[in-house]
What does this fold into?
Amino acid sequence: MALLAPDEPAAFEVVNPAGVSRYLLLCDHASHRMPRTLGTLGLPEAERLSHIGWDIGAADVARELSSMLDAPLVLSGYSRLAIDCNRPPGAAASIPAITCEIAVPGNSDVSGMERDQREAELFWPY
It folds into this structure.
């Protein structure tokens, strides 16, 4: 079974792909979106929407910089609670069971196959 359904957004979004700047901008924690198959990871909405799930406002700042610099921008499409695209694959912190002293029940016992699937569908495409 796929992690992302066909009607869910891609693992990343490209903004200003034809930008002429010599810079490429990345925004690793741009979204709090969660793949439907992962549900809430056992967290209440307030926690998923807090700083533990994404960098609040980072996508807006990155979009503004992309426009100002005329630079291409790649934004991650899903919450760092699903997989943190700013951590090496396989690292414990890439799929955190605890973050900022908050337990993430849905990440507490992730199998190797589940980890591989999150990496394949969310991390590597980004």
